[in-house]
Amino acid sequence: DMLRKLSGYSYAELAKIIVDTPESNWKFNHGYPQTEHYHDANTEHYSLYGVAPPSIKTFADKRFSKWSVAILEQRPGMVIPLHQDTYYKFKQQNDAHGQEVVRYNVFLDDWHPGHYMEVNAKPIVEWRMGDLVRLTSDIPHRTGNIGTAYKYTCQITGVERG
Predict the structure, then answer these.
(1) Taking a C-beta distance cutoff of 8 angstroms, is the pair 154, 108 a contact?
(2) What is the CA radius of gyration of the chain?
(3) Torsion region of 98: left, alpha or beta (phi above 0 gives left; psi -120 to 50 gives alpha)
(4) Fewer beta carbons under 10 A from the terminal one: N or C of the chain?
(5) Is 0.70 topped by the overall pTM?
(6) Which residue stretches of the chain are H helix?
(7) Which of 69, 71, 83, 58 lies closest to 109, judged by CA?
(8) For 13-46, what is each residue's pLDDT tens digit?
(9) Which runs of E-coded beta strand occur in the chain?
(10) Residues 128-147: tens digit of each pLDDT
């Protein structure tokens, strides 16, 4: 099973962040790679950088020697096409060139119909809040929201402790 569980996380942590964070702090982004099928109109998402729910901060501090965090909001009708992460920005900002960088994708809400993630050509659905999947730079993955509820995930990127 690809999914692991993050202990101590509750939806109240996300709700507090959404309520306490000004809309202007969320950065408007697009998913890549862009192609004839995937473009600005269907790859929109919003990112909140540097804000970690308390349980995720605790997890990251224990697991990583250096790390960064982003919360992603994917609205209905939006996708992020199949890609592999290079962690270029993290490596640049954290002098981590030559080190293995990994990403944990944490589901911040229970699965809703129409929410989808695919990792190594295997679908992930019916997750529970706090479930997470570990990604490395060689793992292709994609995500989509063809449901009616916003989809929230948290990405923890970093260098794991030995």
Answers:
(1) yes
(2) 15
(3) left
(4) C
(5) yes
(6) 11-20, 54-63, 88-93
(7) 71
(8) 999 999 999 999 999 999 999 999 999 999 999 9
(9) 4-5, 27-30, 44-49, 64-74, 78-83, 102-107, 115-119, 122-124, 131-135, 141-145, 151-160
(10) 999 999 999 999 999 999 99
